[in-house]
alcohol dehydrogenase
Amino acid sequence: MAPQFHIPKVQKAAIVETTDAPLKVVDNHPVKQPHELAPGECLVELDCSGVCHTDLHARQGDWPIQAKLPLIGGHEGVGRIVAIGEHTQDSPVKIGDRVGIKWLAYSCLDCEPCRKGLEQSCLKGKYSGFTVDGTFSQYVVSWVTHVTPIPDGIASAEAASILCAGITVYRAIKYSRTHIGDWIVLPGAGGGLGHLAVQYAVAMGLRVVAVDTGAEKKELCLKLGAEKWIDFKETKDLVKDIIAATDGYGAHAAVVTAATGSAYAQAIDYLRMGGTLMVVGLPARASLSADIFFTVTKSITIVGSYVGNRQDAREALDIAARGKVKCYYQLKSLSSLAETYEGLAEGKIVGRVVLNMKE
Ligand SMILES: [Zn+2]
Ligand SMILES: [Zn+2]
């Protein structure tokens, strides 16, 4: 028999009413009741939710596309299924299962991008904490086909950050056309996405050149398995240093998550012949200005990579659950979300922030 869960009528939630109003944390937001769920929908009681830079963009409204308002943000939630809509057919998950809610909340699985495995670019896609309410609440409604089963062997708080940051860098490395023993450059290697990227790259047999700044980040990157370290504030010529660090020929690939256009242009210069630039950052407004002459003559491939599909999510979580990837995070409460946004805006957050939704 399926376990029974008590489902309250109201819950704590952080609500963005307008992009310029202060964030409102309430404790009387209604919980969608089991009988209100449509077939195929499920209700998830959340343990925790990670905070991502995307949440800040949704909150500030500075992207070329706008979030719904009022909005409950959040797209790195982990919890348990406590109810499934009546008349749901062939559900791949059951009540009591531990699952994750990621950025891609729903995809049609039938449009051309979906059929080609690019469901994150679905023509009818729904996005958690952006076009549908997300995980900065104690309960969230999702779809049985799109929640991600969380494997044993990984704590909920750790799985939370894998659901967005982890999937994003994992997929970017997976499609970087690299092979075991190749050199990969990771600018921002000591940050939230970067420190996960270092570990996935090492787990995939790649040799990592970590680019970031400061003694603390240097120590972290080298501890996680980066072979070379370049401090971008100390170097006189970043491109020259990277080429020197990679046998004098340049790197096979770079996964660039930066918010500035210059980091992408630089990559064309330090990649070797036939190298691949993975474009991953989602800055509010920036263009990619690659030198056409060298892109052509060096046979460079430029690839945009956007989070990941359901398979990428399973793979990224599986690698982490087997202990190959550890996330460095600080656990906070939902009421500290506003100050976390301030910290993100000022670039002061080290590692990832995960909110405990149980308190
Ligand atoms: Zn995210
Ligand atoms: Zn689709």
Summary: Residues 176-304 form a domain with the Rossmann fold fold (CATH 3.40.50.720).
